[in-house]
Design goal:
It is built from 10 helices and 14 strands. The chain is an alpha/beta fold and 361 residues long. Helix 1 (12-19) runs parallel beside helix 3 (90-104). The longest helix has 18 residues, at 255-272. The protein is globular and about 65 Å long. Bound molecules: flavin-adenine dinucleotide. Flavin-adenine dinucleotide (FAD) binds next to helix 1, strand 3, strand 14 and helix 5.
Amino acid sequence: MVTQTSIIGDGCAAMMLASRSDRLPDHNIRLIKPENAPPPVDHMWGFWAGKGLDEQISLARKKWNNWSIITESGEAVMSSNDHAYHAIHREKWLGHCREKIEKLGIALLEQNEVDIENDVIFDSRPPRMNGKVMLQHFYGVEVETKMPVFDDSKAILMDFRVDQSKGLHFIYLLPFSNTNALIESTIFSFDLASEDFYLASIHDYLERIYSCSDFVTKHQEKGVIPMGRLQPHDPDIPGLGGNAGAIRPGSGYAFVYIHKQIEEAINHCKKTGKLRFKPPHKKIDLWMDDVMLTVLENYPNRGPDIFYRMGKSLSGDQFAKFMSGEITWGLRLKVITSMPKLPFIRGVTKRIFGGRSSGVA
Ligand SMILES: Cc1cc2nc3c(=O)[nH]c(=O)nc-3n(C[C@H](O)[C@H](O)[C@H](O)COP(=O)(O)OP(=O)(O)OC[C@H]3O[C@@H](n4cnc5c(N)ncnc54)[C@H](O)[C@@H]3O)c2cc1C
């Protein structure tokens, strides 16, 4: 028997699932464009190369075998041949999925045009925050400079040499060439900053670090990713993607985790006939993220040192695996021992006895 299955959403997870639905012959999948959804905007997804990601890798705009974390006291450079950092345009990936979906004859319908009441439904609309949750908020510009200023062999994941008055603040810089880069001002805090603040930070950074004030802006992107464990968009509808726990709470990365979640669900469905989507993270990693977030919320000024130490103590391969959820006990131990002891002892204590204000379940 074929199960009529409706997926609410047309974003990353919904499109990825639908584009692979030829592997779910017992489910007749259709996508439902949600009402009141904001207009889609292109942005970059960063991810580390790993097993099963050949499609994503082949569509990436650029890859970097080197990446770094920079603080006032130094730079931690990591390198990897097998797990290079890649950046892919959201529009490129969704366009690729759309082509496959069209070939598969999958319908994309407006929510008010269709009755899905009798379908099996999965909801990929964004999860909701429960109370006050620390946010990762950012504003980025893609610039073209007059003079060659960027080193395009290395992505900068975090450069903390910026104003720290609004929270844990860093620059994320993806150099596509020596004159072309995406530069994002990113803050971990409870409150958003004004667009002027992020933009001034980027301009000031370019001037101070690259002696560059002559550039044109080609594209802008912004985002807010809640950090912490979140609640489903609608408690009565099972989720998919970020709405089924795919966003890694400690980092906001989700692109590769959504891939893993969907692969696991397809494999499970083949064995049991049942389609369902689980958070693609291990409990211990969620707990470690909770502790990390507790520390960052309570001691944001320790953030630069924490990330720098992690970058210094892990190899590129280890860092990429940690960020992508391919984590062994040995790697967890290495991350734990690289951390400054006192704030983490306090963080663990607060996790056990309370004191963290955000929506961690
Ligand atoms: C700007 C930005 C940059 C990111 N960068 C990275 C990155 O570099 N690497 C990484 O791994 N992850 C990144 N993420 C996190 C994550 O990969 C994305 O959030 C990913 O798109 C989640 O996929 P999804 O299918 O769960 O949700 P989405 O792709 O966001 O799809 C959600 C669906 O719900 C709809 N919707 C949205 N809001 C509403 C609403 N209010 N009401 C009704 N419907 C709504 C949308 O139209 C869409 O159909 C980024 C997120 C953002 C926002």
